[in-house]
Specification:
This protein is 37% helix and 24% strand. A hairpin with a 2-residue loop joins strand 9 and strand 10. It has a single domain, classed as P-loop containing nucleotide triphosphate hydrolases (Rossmann fold, 3-Layer(aba) Sandwich). The chain has 256 residues and is of the alpha/beta class. The protein is globular. It has a six-stranded mixed beta sheet, sandwiched between helices. Strands 2-1-4-5 form a four-stranded antiparallel beta sheet, with helices on one face. The chain has ten helices and ten strands. The longest helix has 16 residues. Bound molecules: adenosine-5'-triphosphate. Adenosine-5'-triphosphate binds next to strand 2 and helix 1.
Length: 256
C-alpha cells in the first residue's frame, strides 16, 4: 500500500520582504492525521509560512504541498482539501454570521439544503445563535466571535487539513472548550490540523507533534515528546530561542 502523502509538506519554502528574510528555506513534513503545533517568538515567520502553505502569499522560493498537491500549481484542488483560519481574518463586515456561512457554502458549490443545515448547527455549537437572532453583523462581532465564525467558514466544506493561525486568541474559556472538542473530533475522524500558538501548555495539551520556529527557520520538530525531550515545551522553547532578562537598572523609571 502507498504511504499517504503528508498533510502538508514544505520543500525549501522561503519568503523575503525586500532585504528581510521572513522564512528561510523551511523543509517540513506534517504527518497525515496529526495535530501539529507551530510555535515561535513574535516575528519568527509562523504566519508567513502558514500564508504560503494556504495560497494566501506567494513564496519567494520553494514549494508547499497539501496532501501531495502543490498549492501554487493547482490551487483549486489544494484549497478544496484545506480549511483555513488566517491571522487578522478579513471578513465581509456587512453580513450576519449566518449570511456569511450561507454565502461561503454556496460559493464553495455545496448544496443549499446542506449549507443551511451546517450553518444552523455551527452557529448553535459556537454559541453565535443569539447574535444571529439579533441580526448582529460580522463587523460588530467581538474578536473572539470573529475567530469562531472564521473557524466555521474553515469547516463548512469538510476539508481534510485545517490550518489555524492562533485559533484560541481572544476566545473565552467556555468557547475554548467547544473549540477543543471540535478540533479533537476533526482529528479523530482522520483529519489533520496545524495550528500556531504562543500558549505552550495549550500546545502540549492538544498537539501530538510540534515544530519550533525562530528567525525564519525550524529549530526543532517531531513528536511532542521528542521536541520537549523530558522537560516542558516552554523550557525547550526558551532554551532554543533564548530569553531576555531585564537588568536591575533597566526600566527602573516605570515605578518611580
Ligand atoms: N507584509 C510584510 N512586509 C514586510 N515584512 C513582513 C511582512 N509580513 C511579515 N513581515 C516580517 O516577516 C517576519 C515574520 O513575520 P510573521 O508575521 O510571519 O511572524 P510570526 O511568527 O507570525 O509572528 P507573531 O507571533 O508575532 O504573529 C517579521 O519580521 C515581519 O516583520
Amino acid at each position: 500500500m502507498d504511504t499517504p502523502a503528508p498533510a502538508l509538506r514544505f520543500d525549501g519554502l522561503s519568503r523575503h520582504f525586500g532585504d528581510k528574510v521572513a522564512v528561510d528555506a523551511v523543509d517540513l513534513r506534517i504527518p497525515p492525521g496529526s495535530f501539529y503545533g507551530l510555535v515561535g517568538p513574535n516575528g519568527a515567520g509562523k504566519t508567513t509560512v502558514l500564508s504560503m502553505a494556504t495560497g494566501l502569499l506567494r513564496p519567494s522560493a520553494g514549494r508547499a504541498l497539501v496532501r501531495g498537491i502543490d498549492v501554487w500549481e493547482d490551487p483549486v484542488a489544494a484549497k478544496r482539501a484545506l480549511g483555513v483560519l488566517p491571522d487578522g481574518l478579513a471578513l465581509p463586515e456587512r453580513l450576519t454570521g449566518g449570511e456569511l456561512l450561507t454565502y461561503w457554502g454556496r460559493f464553495r458549490g455545496i448544496d443549499a439544503a446542506v449549507v443551511a443545515a451546517r450553518t444552523t448547527e455551527l452557529l448553535r455549537i459556537l454559541e453565535l445563535e443569539e447574535a444571529e437572532r439579533l441580526g448582529t453583523l460580522v463587523g460588530e462581532y467581538s474578536t473572539g466571535m470573529r475567530k469562531k465564525i472564521g473557524l466555521a467558514t474553515a469547516l463548512l466544506h469538510t476539508p481534510t487539513v485545517l490550518v489555524l493561525d492562533e485559533p484560541y486568541e481572544a476566545v473565552d474559556p467556555v468557547s475554548a472548550r467547544v473549540l477543543t472538542s471540535i478540533l479533537r473530533r476533526f482529528v479523530a475522524a482522520g483529519g489533520s490540523i496545524v495550528l500556531s500558538s504562543h500558549v505552550m501548555p495549550l500546545v502540549e495539551q492538544l498537539c501530538d507533534h510540534v515544530a519550533i520556529m525562530a528567525a525564519g527557520r525550524i529549530v526543532a520538530d517531531g513528536t511532542l515528546d521528542e521536541v520537549r525531550a523530558g522537560g516542558t515545551l516552554e523550557d525547550r522553547f526558551v532554551e532554543l530561542v533564548g530569553s531576555t532578562e531585564l537588568d536591575a537598572e533597566e526600566l527602573s523609571w516605570i515605578a518611580s
